[in-house]
Amino acid sequence: MTMLHDPDDLILQIRAPEIRKYVSESVRALRAGALRAAVLSLWVAVNSDVIGKIRELAASGDPQATAEITQLEGWIQNKELRNLQIFEHEILTLARDKYEFLSAIEADELERLRQDRHRCAHPALTPDGTLYDPTPEQIRAHLVIATRALFAHPPVQGRSALRRFKAEVESQTFPLQLSQVTAYLGPKYIDRGKDVLVTQIVKLYLQQALAETPAVPRLRALHVLLAVKDRRFALYQQAMSDHWVKRVSDGDEKTLPFVIDLLQLDSDLWLQLPDHEQRRLITFLEQAAATQGRRC
Question: In 3D, which of 255, 206, 257, 258 has the Cα closest to residue 228?
């Protein structure tokens, strides 16, 4: 296991103190060789984290989350065990489909943890009724997935997060200076945003930066891209390599000045362009310079 996946480092990434407590308990069990106990504590942490995120949304006024928590608290108060069991059984589906805390892949990966929890807690679920023995590697893998998918992130990560991000960028109070944009968006969205969210941000604001009539001021779109580059460089590079060349190639002559504006702010993008696109931009600049010279 690399240092990147060291349990102590993963614990430090967990947002909520109560979840950190459950995960620390799981890690202690793992190190003591109590592997089934480690699985059970980790599954409790996943359940508690999803419920905690829904509570956060409810506290912020989200009507769907408020209704969910009201119903859940009613079941707890009335000791409606059947409904509570159903809720736990469906919690990953709830987190994936209703609240978008998880992607489909993340939910599938955490389903493996849920199945391991059942095998540990209910020996009758194994083919011969023997005790299920998870391996330390399995538990570490579950811990990595749970932290990356859930524990390290705020409660809004799906389409709602992107809508909220867009509303921030479009607002009248959005910062004007690049340093302010980076300092504002970094902790709130970029630093711990899931890869899919940050990639969507890059794709969206690359489109806006090169659009003939962008939905936001072009400079804002450029600042968003540079903020992502500053805070999540590797992910920015990957997203740009996937979309930048195609955007330039698909653009007509009207978009070339905007391409050049972005290149002036991020010259590294020049090297990603194929030779024929570099030649097209050079020719455009030469023609623009010649036209300007004739006017003078």
Answer: 206
> Does residue 135 contact residue 35 with C-beta atoms inside 8 Å?
yes
Name which of 185, 156, 152, 143 is nearest 27 in CA terms. 143
What is the C-alpha to C-alpha distance for residues 250 and 235, in angstroms, rounded to an integer?
Answer: 23
Helices (H), 122-217: 136-146, 159-170, 178-185, 195-210
Tokens 């997060």 locate to 161
Least confident of 95-109, 170-184, 256-270: 95-109
Instruction: List all residues 6 or more positions away from 158 whose beta carbon is below 8 Å from its beta carbon.
Output: 99, 100, 101
Q: Where are the alpha helices (DSSP H) in the chain?
A: 7-12, 17-32, 35-59, 63-77, 81-89, 91-93, 104-121, 136-146, 159-170, 178-185, 195-210, 218-231, 233-250, 256-265, 275-295
In angstroms, the first-to-last Cα distance of the chain is 66
Residue pointed to by tokens 């069991």: 85
User: pLDDT tens digit string along 114-166?
Assistant: 999 988 887 655 566 677 889 999 999 999 999 999 999 888 656 677 888 99
d(CA 107, CA 130): 28
Cβ atoms of 277 and 248 within 8 Å: the answer is: yes
